[in-house]
Amino acid sequence: MPFTVGQRWISDTESELGLGTVVALDVRMVTLLFPATGENRLYARNDSPITRVMFNPGDTISSHEGWQLIVEEVKEDKGLLTYLGTRIDTEESVAMREMLLDSKLTFSKPQDRLFAGQIDRMDRFALRFRARKYQREQFRLRWSGLRGMRASLIPHQLHIAYEVGQRHAPRVLLADEVGLGKTIEAGMIIHQQLLAGRAERVLIVVPETLQHQWLIEMLRRFNLHFSLFDDERYAEAAHDASNPFESEQLVICSLDFVRRNKQRLEMLTEAHWDLLVVDEAHHLEWSEEAPSREYQVIEQLAEHTPGVLLLTATPEQLGQQSHFARLRLLDPNRFHDYREFVAEQQTYRPVADAVTLLLGGQRLSNDEKNVLGELISEQDIEPLLSAANEKGEDSEDARRSLITMLMDRHGTSRVLFRNTRNGVKGFPHRVLHQIRLPLPMQYQTAIKVSGIMGAKKTVEARARDMLYPEQIYQEFEGENATWWSFDPRVEWLMGYLTTHRHEKVLVICAKADTALQLEQVLREREGIRAAVFHEGLSIIERDRAAAYFASEEEGAQVLLCSEIGSEGRNFQFASRMVMFDLPFNPDLLEQRIGRLDRIGQQHEIQIMVPYLEQTAQAILVRWYHEGLDAFEHTCPTGRPIYDSSYQQLIGFLATPNEQEGLNEFIHECRLHHEALKLQLEQGRDRLLEMHSNGGESAQALAQSISECDNDVNLVNFALNLFDIVGINQEDRSDNLIILTPSDHMLVPDFPGLPQDGCTVTFDREQALSREDAQFITWEHPLIRNGLDLILSGDTGSCAVSLLKNKALPVGTLLVELIYVVESQAPKHLQLTRFLPPTPIRMLMDRKGTNLAEQVEFESFNRQLNAVNRHTSSKLVNAVQQDVHAMLQMAEPLVEQQARVLIDEAKVEADEKLTAELARMEALRAVNPNIRDDELEALELTRKLVLANLNDANWRLDAIRLVVVSHQ
Fold first, then answer.
1. CA–CA separation, 782 vs 760, rounded Å?
2. Could you report how far apart the first and last alpha carbons of the chain are, in Å?
3. What order of strands is seen across the sheet that includes strand 19-25?
4. Residue 755's domain is classified under what CATH number?
5. Looking at 769, 792, 815, which one is the last position of a domain?
6. What would you report as the CA-atom Rg of the chain, rounded to the nearest whole angstrom?
7. Domain of 77: which CATH number?
8. Among 649, 660, 651, which residue's Cα sits nearest to residue 621?
9. In the list 42, 112, 148, 432, which could disulfide-bond 777, CB 3.0-4.6 Å?
10. How far apart are the C-alpha atoms of 317 and 675, rounded to whole Å?
11. CA distances (Å), 839 to each of 767, 829, 891, in order?
């Protein structure tokens, strides 16, 4: 193209210079001034890496004075362009010479970038299109937010999470028994609410001992980075914000931290959370006359937070009044009077009986049909009742429909979810092995001296001392005391490990020091590979220890854990546990066993308890086993019995040689245990359990998500993404890949990728067995951030390729266009359910024919060859007018397809949201657990969704110029 002084050009290699102006010419060279930076560049007149800047009718351009012009006509005079059109701010018709264009002009539209020579690599264009396609598919999945967790796909957990996570401001009580996964259920609900935009700020309040467990669970299982607030973190945040709690979106703190300071509670309340999660909610004591301070604190927070999740493993063990108190936190209007609540509870028995009747499969008598008719009085169920007495599938379907109606209309099942081990199958057996060992003389002497010197200690302090004779011995003998040289438990442990070399063994001790000393002994005396895991380690160090234990090849045989160090971890790949000592209360005992006793455990759990005779350990092992049956079965009665018999128990532990009355005490505890257990079993609400485990629909949900695991498209896309972003990949065995940042990444700091890299896997089972490996799904931050990086910027928005095809004439021009149909709306409306950003691909020839249906993208892309940037710019310059004309011909074609998509989305949204609203309004008349604000939110959502879909539009997202060549 001939040069003229005053023309505007852009550098292909230094686009950051902005628009350049031709200021000087000679026979061989051209000089450009770039006003935005004040720099000059000298280029050869032939084959220089610069591109002529020319705009077309319909484009919006900016003048150097800041105003904008919509181009209607372009005139050329002696090589210089003048743009005619309407000025946006004044709406007057004006002419703008190209010399007056804004020198800082940036090109955002794909066609502008193409014409300005800002051409991308063709592999980035392909990645952008795939990102659009896959993103749309993910938005359309109904279980969005559920499959990205690093956890097994357990039906009852998925059912609860799906049921609650889809709600507006859910307020529910999660009350599954120990080991059934309440923390995972809460995490899945939080994850869904955050991904869907229903919540942005989440507060988790837990007992102090569980803070790190929650922090780890949220990070490791859901990739959610919570901030742990304690006194130090609060003081630090106070320097940065007037309200320290507004400095973070996701916060974990202890109940004690909230309770201690009135001003802090006020700050916390004023921070406007969307979702409040409270663990161990049964500790919130309440009575009408004197609610506890802890209860009042949570009540104040719950009043000011739209969504509330309460977690407890003991919904009614502390009495019906305590149960009512927790429901009152969720909906004080609905649960406002305790006496009314008790009376109402009595009415649920006929409903539970009716469900049992339908489940039994027997023919329904006329009286039984009448009972069902009264319970579902507002709907004609005669056809269903008749079908229920037929044989075959129709009968099953009818009975399921009747059960669903009963569950919708009666009971507190909308606000309370409760699964029990009786109702959920898949748990392993536990087998206890008691190893009775003699008490060494050294310990006998130390205990006698301790008894004399500690005469003034409280009974509780003496009882705690007696549980750990090695601690007593070390206290008197000093740091150099080698208790492990004579303690028979150590000899037994070494013998057990050496005879079970190929078995993974978890050893738990109460104290970190004990674990550290045992590791040294095992390593030095028998060469046993052991990892140590305790509260003194950082999260990263704990990860490494857990990974070392989990590794099949060259991994540790044994993991030595302290009490607190074992919290929140799942070691179910092992099935052997040694309790080197025993914890002080049954909750901690269950927590220890819970590291292995999980759903999905493939083997019987072998629990070894080596204990020293004539010590508190000997008494405690008897009390746990004979009094509570706590080793071989879960013990829901443990805490209440522990509380009621506490004084007697510590008396026996403090003086283990005085056993008078011990047998009677253990027998009484066993009777108490059996009575409480029977009471709990009789009180089981089978209607509630049926609703909570989800039945066949939950199984189907788990199956659907399982089928999406190991998605080949995800693996290919992720590896392609990592390549293009510039992330180094190193393949390891066991389906593992190590990702590390490189020096040439698209962005200097890729969100979600640590500076020192990370290990990832696409295999769920592998992620579950390897604590150090992140589980990559479409919901993982690395993939979500990668999609955002590609789609929110210009990456791959324009490209030029050659098609070597001798069946077509040389120079044949094709333009591949990717349009996106989308609606801009607040995230919480979830318009993506009905109209996610949807790509429309078109392949236009010069005649205006769309060939996209005949030419599939991937096969077409494989036939194309890359073109260097300089040649690309020359090709674009040569066919710019043709490309502009082809874009004009594509407009009516894309409008037709886009209108169909938008209209389909509006019909789907109207049908689904209207049906959901009608169902909820019908149920509201018979089930008071449906809140008014839920109905109002549904109605408002429906109106806003339809209004925003009316405003949906489309735009060109990417363009690729394809030229046929025979070389």
1. 10
2. 25
3. 39-44, 29-34, 19-25, 8-11, 50-52
4. 3.30.360.80
5. 792
6. 35
7. 2.30.30.930
8. 649
9. 148
10. 12
11. 33, 21, 15
Domain containing residue 289: CATH number: 3.40.50.10810
Give the bridge partners for 802, in sequence order. 865, 963
Q: Which amino acid, one-letter code, is at 933?
A: D
Nearest to 308 by CA among 208, 164, 144, 184: 164
Question: Shortest CA distance to 133 belongs to which of 663, 903, 838?
Answer: 838
| Both tokens assigned to 439 | 């008490």
As given in the structure block, the two tokens for residue 276 are 């409040």
549 token code pair: 């234990």
Q: Quote the tokens at residue 921.
A: 């309004």
Q: What are phi and psi of 173, to 5 degrees?
A: -110, 115
Separation CA 173–CA 153 (nearest Å): 21
How far lies 462's CA from each of 433, 444, 447, in Å?
27, 15, 10
For CA atoms 610, 613, 619, 625, the dihedral sign is positive
Amino acid at 519: E
Whole-angstrom Cα distance, residue 796 to residue 960? 9
Tokens 């104040």 belong to which residue? 300
- How buried is 512 (Cβ within 10 angstroms: 0-12 exposed, 13-18 middle, 19+ buried)? buried
Give the DSSP letter string of 855-915: S-HHHHHHTEEE--HHHHHHHHHHHHHHHHHHHHHHHHHHHHHHHHHHHHHHHHHHHHHHH
Q: Which two tokens stand for residue 161?
A: 């999470």
Give pTM, 2 decimals. Answer: 0.74
- 253 and 355, same domain (yes or no): no
Q: What span, in angstroms and rounded, lies between the C-alpha atoms of 688 and 693?
A: 9
Which H/E stretch holds residue 803?
strand 798-804
Residues 543 and 447 in one domain: yes
Question: Which tens digit of pLDDT belongs to each residue from 370-400?
Answer: 777 777 765 677 788 778 777 777 777 787 7
Are 435 and 370 found together in one domain? Answer: no
Is residue 1 a part of any domain in this protein? no
Strands 29-34 and 19-25, sheet pairing? antiparallel
**Tokens (6 digits) for 124:** 């980035």
Its domain, for residue 71, covers: 8-106
pLDDT-wise least confident of 137-151, 321-335, 908-922: 321-335
Beta bridge pairs of residue 728: 740
Note whether 512 and 562 are within 8 A (CB): yes
Q: Tens of pLDDT along 151-169?
A: 888 898 999 999 899 888 8
Is 249 domain-assigned?
A: yes
Q: Is 441 exposed, middle or buried (0-12, 13-18, 19+ CB in 10 A)?
A: exposed
Is the torsion defined by CA of 328, 334, 339, 344 positive or negative?
A: negative
Q: What is the distance of C-alpha 380 from the center of its chain?
A: 42
Q: Where are the beta strands (DSSP E) in 537-678?
A: 558-561, 576-579, 605-612
Enter the tokens of residue 112: 């502008």
Q: What is the largest CA-CA distance in the chain?
A: 115
Q: Residue 567 carries which side chain, given as an amino acid letter?
A: E
- Residue 455 falls within a domain, yes or no? yes
551 in the same domain as 479: yes
CA–CA separation, 791 vs 110, rounded Å?
Answer: 12
Rounded Cα distance between 820 and 84, Å, is: 30
Q: Looking at the structure, do residues 764 and 841 belong to the same domain, yes or no?
A: no
Pair (899, 918) in one structural domain: yes
Q: Say whether both 486 and 606 belong to one domain.
A: yes
What Cα–Cα distance (Å) separates residue 533 from each residue in 539, 632, 771, 798? 10, 25, 13, 52
Q: What is the pLDDT of residues 278-331, one digit of tens each?
A: 998 877 888 777 888 889 999 999 999 999 999 986 655 445 677 777 788 887
- Residue 770 confidence (pLDDT): 79
Q: Give me the number of domains the chain comprises.
A: 6
Domain match, 566 and 653 both: yes
Domain assignment present for residue 638? The answer is: yes
Which residues contact residue 525 at a Cβ distance below 8 angstroms, ignoring those fewer than 6 apart?
494
Amino acid type, 788: D
Helices 469-477 and 441-453 sit at what angle, rounded to 10 degrees?
A: 80
Report CA-CA distances (Å) from 374 to 166, 183, 359, 403: 31, 39, 19, 14
